[in-house]
Each structure stands twice: as structure tokens, then as C-alpha cells.
Amino acid sequence: MTAQTTTATTAAGERESRHAPLILTVFGLYARGEHNWLSVASVISLMADLGVESRAVRSSVSRMKRRDVLRGERHDGLAGYSLADSTLQTLAEGDVRIFQQARASRENGWVLVVFSVPESEREKRHALRTTLTRLGFGTAAAGVWIAPGHLAAETRRTLERRELSAYVDLFTGDHFAFGDLREKVRSWWDLDELTALYADFLNRYRPVLDAMTRHEPPPLEAFRTYAPMLTQWRRMPYRDPGLPLELLPPEWNGVAAGELFHRLHTLLSAPAAAHAAGVLHAQR
């Protein structure tokens, strides 16, 4: 394989990786209301509306099937895909995070995860770190991860579901002493990175909200805006676990970003769903 071919293959893989979150958003939004199934034709049509060509869609879906995110199924003789059981559970938990995210208070205390994984099981260590990062945990020390206490039950369920609980001790409690807790929070979480992520969302979608509040968006326009917007937003509630506002920098832009997301969701979700329903029914 030549260097040029290798570069082209890598670039294609990166494009497919970028498409996968958008495809998952489409399935999360519309497959669950269709008995957890979308036909191949409807997926390709919806993704074409989002500017993704069919070849890239098929390649991305194949990768998602290999990772057991999607499963191939035929309904009434039509080829299509369903969400794997584990994906359905993850999406259900994500709905709460994305659409009903709770803001912690100091009174909630903290949940601590302490783990030790044998060197012979390094893949479990990686899985633990990935899982805790996705739950929104910060790193208090080597092998000690911390999150607001209101995430304790979700953390326990997630670790058990992913068969990682055997490597973990879970504690809840208060920060009793010492030091400035606001400074500690800044060291446990990368607040600068979070601020930049929220700023990017605000810069991208404030003009969109301004434009769309002046005229009611037609279904296709709403769909083309809503699906990518939700795809960008849905990683934020996992990076930001809803830390108490008094421990965050003044005028934390995560609050404004959250308000913008919910206004766009209210404005766009129904007409976007109407467009998707028209496509799905046309492809039956």
C-alpha cells in the first residue's frame, strides 16, 4: 500500500467517524418511535438531507454494526437496522442527561470512585477511565475520580451494566477540609476546555436562533438544523456533570448554552420530527 493510498484510507475513516455520531442521533430521535427499526432507504434519505452521501452512510453503518451499536434486521422483506440493546439503554440514560440535566448543589455532596486494576487487565483500566470520563467525573488523584453526589446512582448502574464494578469502590460524602473547593474543582475538571466548548456552541447557534425566531422554519430546514445541533450538544452534559454554580467561574457560559439548547429544542424538534416522519413513511 502506497503512502498516498494510506493517507486516503485514513481520511475516509476519519470522515466515517465524524458521520457516526450524526447517524446515532438520527436513530436515537426517530428509530425508537418506529419499533426500533429504520430501513436502509430511509437512513440514506435522511442522511442525504443532512449532506452525507450514501456511500459514506453505508460505510459508517457497517462500522457501527461491527461495534454492536446497530444490528441489521429485515422487516417485511426490507433491509434495515435496529439499535442494539446496550445502545438503547445508553440512549435512554442519555435522554435524562441531555433533556433533563440536573444542576448539583453543595448539599448533594460528592461521589468518589477508587479503583485498582491489575496490569494483566489493562483493557479494563481503559474501559473504567472511558466510562468515568463519559459520566462526567473529574480526577482528584491517581485512581481516585470524583463527581457531584447526584450522579451516584447513575454511576453505580453504569459500572454494573458494563461489568466494571468488581474493580471499584464507590463512596459518597462531603468535602470536609482543607483548601479552597473552587480551586480544587478547577484542578479536577478542565473548566477552560468546557468554557471553550460552550462558547463554540453559543457562537454557532445564537445566530440560528435569532434567524429562526423571525420566521417559522419549514420541516426540512428544521431537521437540517436540529439533528446536527443535537449531535454537537449531546456530548456537553457528559463533559459537564452539572457542578454547583457557586463552584464555577462567575457568569459561567454553560448556563447560557443550556438555555440556548432548550430554546432550539423547543423550536425545532416538532417540525424536524414531521420531516423525518414523512421520509420514513415514504420509504415503506
Automatic annotation (TrEMBL):
Residues 189-277 form the Transcriptional repressor PaaX-like C-terminal domain. It holds the Pfam family PaaX_M. Residues 107-185 form the Transcriptional repressor PaaX-like central Cas2-like domain. It comes from the Bacteria. Residues 22-86 form the Transcriptional repressor PaaX-like N-terminal domain. This is PaaX family transcriptional regulator.
